[in-house]
Write a structure and sequence with these properties.
230 residues; alpha/beta; Rossmann fold; four-stranded antiparallel sheet; 7 helices; 10 strands; binds adenosine-5'-triphosphate; binds magnesium ion; AAA+_ATPase; P-loop_NTPase; nucleotide-binding; MacB-like_ATP-bd
């Protein structure tokens, strides 16, 4: 396998109540893989993604991303890790409605210390390559779902993340917008981006994953290589 980007080893996340949300999961994801995490509601998909993103800590086991242990980082270090290595896309976009599209996309780079001029030019480039350049001055509230998700993907890619994480990126979209986002993720994968996405959308998994991991009750129930569809 190529260089591992993600390594989970015996990773468990337990809450006070109930069985573990994630139970002793070991998983390696290589550079350039596109992995779809599937499974029923409550099976631990978002929990796994949040652990990889450093948004949550395991109760047991380790999470290593790009050679660095991320399970024990302080909050500040964890925020730095996310800015440097991780791009995230969510079901409900999480865009700032008071900012323009261009400013939403530029923000992560400014937070990471990039000069404003350079950030603006990278944002313009990204908006162009994602087909939403004409929306740069608009506010997210007036965009369609598919357009908003493209903006969210542009923002996620701003700092050239090692890893793109997406939790139900088509979950709030109609089928046409969902198709746009599927194609977009597929293109990013073709360009070599490592992607882990959580989805209930089998069409999305089939369109852009090279591998599916099925979670059931916090365990990996299946880990399957997909035939390329192209
Ligand atoms: N903060 C929390 N406190 C207690 N239990 C939690 C918490 N977050 C998640 N859980 C529990 O952990 C389990 C896994 O949740 P998780 O959100 O990872 O599921 P999921 O697979 O993403 O589900 P869905 O498809 O509905 O998004 C669930 O039983 C959930 O109730
Ligand atoms: Mg979830």
């Amino acid at each position: 396998m190529s260089t591992p980007v993600i390594e989970l080893r015996g990773t468990t996340r337990r809450y006070d109540e109930g069985p573990p949300a994630l139970d002793d999961v070991s998983l390696t994801v290589g550079a350039g893989e596109a992995v779809a995490i599937l499974g029923p509601s409550g099976s631990g998909k978002s929990t796994m993604l949040n652990l990889i993103a450093g948004l949550d800590r395991p109760s047991q086991g380790t999470v290593t991303v790009d050679g660095t242990r991320v399970d024990g980082l302080s909050e500040a270090a964890s925020a730095r890790y996310r800015r440097a290595k991780v791009g995230m896309v969510f079901q409900f976009f999480n865009l700032l409605d008071d900012l323009t599209v261009a400013d939403n996309v530029t923000l992560p780079a400014l937070l990471a210390g990039m000069r404003r001029r350079e950030a603006r030019s990278r944002a313009a480039e990204l908006l162009d390559s994602l087909g939403i350049k004409r929306l740069a001055a608009a506010h997210p509230a007036r965009l369609s779902g598919g357009e908003r998700q493209r903006v969210a993907v542009a923002r996620a890619l701003m700092n050239r993340p090692t890893l793109l994480l997406a939790d139900e990126p088509t979950g709030a979209l109609d089928s046409a917008s969902g198709l746009e986002v599927r194609q977009l993720l597929n293109e990013l994968h073709a360009d070599g981006q490592t992607i882990v996405l959580v989805t209930h959308d089998l069409a999305l998994a089939e369109a852009c994953a090279t591998r599916t991991v099925r979670l059931v009750d916090g365990h990996v129930a299946a880990d399957t290589a997909m035939e390329p569809v192209r």
